[in-house]
Design brief:
This protein has 321 residues and is of the alpha+beta class. The protein has three domains: 120 residues, Jelly Rolls; 76 residues, no CATH class; 106 residues, Arc Repressor Mutant, subunit A, CATH 1.10.10. Helix content is 42%, strand content 22%. β7 and β8 form a beta hairpin.
């Protein structure tokens, strides 16, 4: 199994403007401060939760700032709790008011005009979006093409998803330390982001008939899943190993196996968790929750229900037997 990925939690308070600008450059993107005005003492506070390249930051600052940034290397989303933000890029403009979510345009410099604000910034590795986009038939490099969510209902979906992930990041014994769970979480966030915010996958024209992998490629896909179930693999990884496309793999799993690659992978991981529970000495202190998390099951309750449906008993009973 892969090593756990630590979650870094930090609280920072800045009273020196230059130190805070250096933090913003290091964390988000290169920037040039064009203007800075504040009443009284300068202050910026940051509460941050980070797991590898993924992070959520709650930021408050007391300044009216005009800044010009370079392109953001990660896909970045901003929720404004208080204050005002105006951003410009590629001739377009977006204004945040309290309660608004927005996404920064991909791979382009941005100008910001921010008044004293309280916001949440969510940063996702671009690779997570690319993996999900590939399964939707977009292999050309996904880009966000608009700032605002496509509808109020979609925005609520994003807000609920982010709140849940934040609760997991902030948990004392967070399951997101486990590589498989972290990867599943990133795929979920990426999938929701591509559903909520305008992007190139929405304009992708799907051609009928994805083709099929052939018996040999399907066997290669199955073997790859068997050999790599302990790793945070994606549908794109499976397709690459089989020498075909993500859509063709999905099509043939449905056609020949009446399932999806993701569900098949979950079944294999459930089998591995069952084997580990059966072989573990309960006196070592190993718990069902630990075993479930190692195999990508973040919720002990969901794992127990799935386990019982397949094996007719509880995982705790298997561990004690």
């Amino acid at each position: 199994m892969q090593q756990q990925i630590p979650i870094t939690r930090s609280v920072l308070d800045f009273t020196d403007p230059e130190a805070s600008y250096d933090f913003l450059r290091h964390t988000y993107a290169d920037l040039r401060v064009c203007s800075s005005r504040h009443e009284g003492d300068y202050r910026m506070s940051v509460s941050s939760w980070a797991c590898s390249e993924f992070s959520m930051d709650d930021i408050r600052h007391s300044t009216h700032l005009l800044v010009q940034t370079g392109p953001f290397p990660r896909e970045t989303f901003l929720y404004l709790r208080a204050g005002r933000v105006r951003a410009t890029a590629d001739g377009g403009e977006y204004r945040w008011l309290p309660g608004d979510w927005g996404v920064y345009p991909s791979r382009t410099p941005i100008g910001f005009d921010t008044h004293p604000i309280d916001d949440r910034v969510v940063s996702l590795p671009a690779g997570a979006l690319a993996r999900v986009a590939a399964t939707l038939g977009d292999d050309d490099g996904v880009r966000f093409t608009g700032w605002a969510p496509v509808s109020a209902d979609k925005c609520r979906l994003w807000d609920t998803t982010v709140a849940y992930v934040h609760s997991q990041l902030a948990a004392q014994d967070s399951p997101l330390c486990e590589p498989l769970i972290r990867e599943n979480m990133l795929d979920t966030l990426a999938t929701v982001a591509l559903t909520v915010f305008p992007n190139t996958t929405m304009a992708h024209v799907y051609t009928p008939g994805p083709g099929h992998t052939g018996a040999r490629a399907l066997r290669q896909a199955l073997a790859f899943i068997e050999d790599n179930a302990q790793r945070p693999i994606t549908i794109s990884d499976i397709a690459t190993a089989a020498g075909t496309t993500a859509r063709a793999v999905q099509y043939d799993f449905a056609r020949h196996l009446d399932t999806t690659p993701t569900l098949h992978l979950r079944r294999i991981r459930l089998e591995r968790a069952h084997q580990e529970l059966s072989a573990t000495d309960p006196t070592t202190g190993t718990t069902v929750k630990q075993v479930a998390a190692r195999w990508g099951f973040a919720s002990p309750g969901t794992f127990a229900a799935l386990y019982r449906s397949v094996y007719g008993t509880t995982p705790s009973h298997t561990l004690r037997s």
